[in-house]
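Lay summary. Proteins are chains of building blocks that fold into shapes, and those shapes determine what they do. In this project we predict the shape from the chain. Here is one chain we studied, written as its sequence of building blocks.
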Amino acid sequence: MVLFAEVPIKSVRTRLLFSIHLQATPIKRQATSYDVIVVGSGPAGVIIASRLSENSARSVLLIEGGGPSYYVTGGRERPQWLSGTNLSRVDVPGLYSTIYSNPSTALLCQNKIRAYGACTIGGNSAINAGLFFEPPASDFDKYFPTGWKHSDVTPAITRLYQKQPSTNKPSQDGLYYQQSGYNAAKQWLVGNANYTELNINANSRRKTKVFGHPVYDYQNGQRSGPVITYLQQALTRPNFRLQSGTWVQRIVRTGDTATGVVVNVNGATSTISLKPNGRVIVSGGALKSPELLMKSGIGDPAVLTTLAAANQLGSLPSSQWINNTAVGAGLFDNPNTFIEMSAPTIQAYNYVYENPPAADQSLYLTKKSGHYSFAGGSCSFWDTVTHADGTVAGVQGGLGNAGYQAYTDAMTVTMNIYGTSGLKSSGR
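And here is the predicted shape, written in a compact code that computers can read:
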């Protein structure tokens, strides 16, 4: 989880398209209209919708295609050992990695995207490890435009921490677990490679040769995040509504101004309207947001031509397209690699979905402590690399709780190292 979540709200008008009269089949129009429609309830969507609803005169609708996740949202998918509790699998940090060994049809996007991700309330914050590291000030100052430099967003970062604290000691008994890997990595990095051991978020500006305990967004031994903080507060406001199980098919418009969205709920199609001067905010992530724009007739003309030929744009004529080659371009990811680390002093720990060791179950259920109170990372570290051309790339690493694939003996754990700022793999 990245910390530029709550930011000053800029006054940016989103002009989008697709007129209802272009449809061959009549589409029912819902009676209620809104000042703001936010599409996608991932961290950004939840926070922006919550922030906008702070104005009681502004009606806000947050739309999510998927369904419940955390217990408080109605999520009830969980292993037998959680029966009788107010916990779903999402709430328990130690069940994080089991999303890979015991996949969830209720949480994952399945065939909605050609990538691994969550389509549920909370988005990927409902299935990731809940890591909560603050970027260094230099990232804001180097990569962000005027008005979004570190000094500009510092007040928002302060407000974020007030609502969403971080912790590097998630177990409620105050103890650290799985420390054999931490100690081995510390000997290597601090003892031999001149890294400095420190509290990561308390020293957020330092991201060169630093080492410490992982930082999480957990609260009271459970997964937290915007769904637990921002969303629950927003749901108490009469001008805010969350509508899940609702897939937005396209955005409707008059001219170049958004007037609503066409949605599908359990196979039934309808239109949700904006009030005059209302706005649609697309917050579906790096893949779903450009897809929605393209299916609304906004994007690269070559791509829109292909979509039109596949009958994905309805009867919208090309004269009403908004040609913008930036839509869908510039997609990138950060490269990462796994390194298996083995030593006689390391003791691996394997998380399981059903039937964890009885002592570990009891410790978590009675005290929200122990192995299942965190996602399994024992340490985190950063460094920077200066390339021959003078550019600087950030590198971040972490040590997991067990080995991977063929390397799964009791003395092996996985080190995950990936590029951060200044190091990425890019598409078109």
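What the prediction tells us: The two ends are 25 Å apart (CA to CA).
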